[in-house]
## 1
Amino acid sequence: MHTHNIRTNLTTMNKQVYLSIVIINAIMLMPLFFNSCIQEVANAKATVETNQVTSVTETSAICGGIITADGGSDITIHGVCWSTSPSPTIENDTTIAAAGKLAFSSSIKGLSHGTTYYVRAYAVNKGGVAYGLNAIFTTKTFSITTNPISVASITATSAIGGGNIISDGDSSSLTVTARGVCWNTFPSPTIENSKTTDGVAGGRFNSNIGSLMPLTTYYVRAYATNSVCTIYGNEVSFVTQSGVIGLTTSAVSSITTNTATCGGNITSDGGAPVTDRGICWNTTGLPSTTDNKTLNGFGVGSYTSELSGLTYNTTYYVRAYATNQYGTIYGDELHFTTFGIPDRDVYFKRNINTEQLTPFGAYIYVTQPIYAIDRIGFGGLLIYHAMDNLFYAVDLACPNESNSKVIIGRPNDLGMCQCSSCGEVYDMCFGQGTPTKGISISSLKQYTVSFDGNDFIYVTK
């Protein structure tokens, strides 16, 4: 019985000691527990909300947020982050807002036009990075079209193009750093090829395309550059002009013994301005501007040239010419022969009654001067009263022979005069002395006939 009591007392004593140890350990560990709880509270993340996105343009927008709780520690960095995928993080693009402001706003820049973005506000403290909810927005579209090339503007070395920059946003806020057209001889030209620079605004613009090659196909695209990218419009193409002038030689007219009239017609300048034009001629064929020539201005259209200093009864070859920066072009070659009767002094006065010139078909045939004051031209004079009741005077020399000794015979009853040498027959019926057989290309040389009012007829040049 005594032994049992000792054991019972020892067991009770051990329990009390154990309990005391447990209580002491608990009391010692309590500060550590409470410190841990306090530490967890101190390291909590902040709470942040994402604002609505505003002021969306083609390349920018404005967003921000508000920090509703700092999580028990200072906010070190805050702002917004964005991406083209949901739930962006600070590993993506970010802004950093000014420190110390719980409500903040940030400008998001460098965006691509017509693109959907996801944005979240964020805040960083000792507890880590806190994010707001996703906000979604799509940037405005930004496009450009290429103007057709005006056919009228195309030359051998230049053309006029342009474009139209279009936005579904406020075009006044569209930031264009460069615009113009680019071109190449291959499709899909870029700004790495030839280009123009035509301002920095949106809307329509024109471009002068230069330094081109003749008769070449070019491909053109309008372009516009902003802070993010360069976009291109649709592609158009055109062919430069050849640079070859379209030119014809006009018929030769008003032929005399030493002059003639000719000209040309420039139907196209070939895409390069005509700087010189005129007529050139020689007696050997294929005349050029190194031979005799006229100068008749510049530009397209028709023109008339007076050839002078010619030799009588001589065949000349004539061509129109025109010059631009690519060279000189010639029209078709024509030829003509000057009249064979050279100019000589003519003065002859007679009374028509004394000379019996009043009937139709009457004539005076003069091969030698009768009076000292008589001047009878090159081969002699024929004064003829024609069927139109007018008087005509011609030189007796046959224009086909150009020899003062070779003259036409007297007119017959029908007013026909024949050259005994070449056989040509000239018709004086109406006083013109027109060749009828085609042997001669020229009519008889005409002189001027007048009256003094007292039945005296005068023949002069």
## 2
Amino acid sequence: MLKPSGIWVSPAEVEARLLAHEAVVQAVVVAAADTDGLERLVAFVILLPGQSVTEAQLIEFCRQGMPSVKRPRKVVFTDAYPTTATGKVRRVELRELAAAALVPGGGSGPVMSVAEPVGPAAIDVSKPNIAHLRRPRCRR
């Protein structure tokens, strides 16, 4: 759950509204802080091949079907999402990209390019990272 403007919003609800548009094939919604420190919704959208739609058209489409507090403030068009080795979307990386996209005059522009997804062959399992599993001992 995300909380822009003090109201809880489910990203799945916004993603479902974006997917209802005929040009959208996939959508992921994340929240990021803007320059004022307020949390804003940013949608990352993959379009159907041969389809074109503008950011303003998608935002207006969301505004017509849901309260304005739930509409994304920015739409970033992309060809692929950063994924884990198991194929899950890496929302942490999308949040970083969303924060950059919310900066006026900055960001990645209207189209985002994503590096190739990390596959199982690219992960070095010879030395597992277990530092996060160590806990400090409690002394009484």
